[in-house]
């Protein structure tokens, strides 16, 4: 039965772009039960469809005759109407270099072929859930305009509610506080516009690292400072997330405007607690901040937890 009431949540839509009929059919079979599916068999056809109807998410093949996926996403990111549509690249198992290129061009994720049904569903669901959350945050004016993640205001409003819930349910809570190392020197060397590109890229990595944890909230709380709040995550789990983030940034290459690769590192302070009524939220934040400071003064590109 179709729910036609005004309270029904509309189905989110996905545009699948792949020149192979078999891939289109398989992805349609996996995703059609939950989402409205649109399809295109070339980059040119995809752009025509986008001119008529904007989907919530795009699954984009890298290798296609004529316009390939990299050219398609480059065009999407130049247009205000399409630049914020999340793009997940789909590609063959031997295209190792394509994954890094995909993220550098602004993709939010990468799925290799042959497709695994569980992986496709989970990654699509995670990114569409993030999209819904970001839409709510944006409506409330709580989105950082540069990086498209939560702002300091959003974090400050969200933390007390999460803290109270952790106290009430006696569940662990972790906080990752991170800072881009030598960001001023990066700006001085490459210019502020390139610094903005770096901030966006790191924000994207943070979102990707927390995509499998729907309760987590990541935010930009200062110029080059970010936080990740992780409900129901113990200290070991928080350290695992922190190390994944540190490694992802360390291995990242961000292309400059003259197409030369640039790099950066981050330092992270980690605090975790199963809070009680006797604990203070401000002490929790202070502990994470002190550990971030220790990470930076002890050599940077490290975690203190």
Output the keywords:
305 residues, alpha/beta, Rossmann fold, Alpha-Beta Plaits, 2 domains, five-stranded parallel sheet, 10 helices, globular, disordered N terminus
Radius of gyration: 20 Å
Gross morphology is globular
Order of helices and strands: EHEHEHEHEHHEHHEEHEEEHE
Helix content: 40-55%
SS strand fraction: 15-25%
N-C termini distance: 52 Å
Distinct helical segment count? 10
Identify the strand order in the major beta sheet: 2-1-3-4-5
| CATH topology title of the largest domain | Alpha-Beta Plaits
Overall mean confidence score, pLDDT: 89
Count of the separate structural domains: 2
Q: How many DSSP E strands?
A: 12
State the fourth-level CATH superfamily of the largest domain. Reverse transcriptase/Diguanylate cyclase domain
The CATH C-level name of the largest domain is: Alpha Beta
Can you tell me about this structure?
The protein has 305 residues and is α/β, with parallel strands linked by helices. The protein folds into 2 domains: 13-131, Response regulator (Rossmann fold), CATH 3.40.50; 140-304, Alpha-Beta Plaits. The protein is 46% helix and 19% strand. It contains 10 helices and 12 strands. The protein has helices at residues 21-31, 43-52, 69-78, 96-104, 117-139, 152-169, 183-190, 192-209, 235-250, 281-297, and strands at 13-17, 36-40, 57-61, 87-91, 109-112, 173-180, 217-220, 225-231, 254-255, 261-262, 266-273, 303-304. The strands form 3 sheets. The chain has a 5-stranded parallel β-sheet with strand order 2-1-3-4-5, with helices on both faces. Helix 2 (43-52) packs parallel to helix 3 (69-78) and helix 7 crosses helix 8 (192-209). The longest helix is centred in the middle third of the chain and has 23 residues, at 117-139.
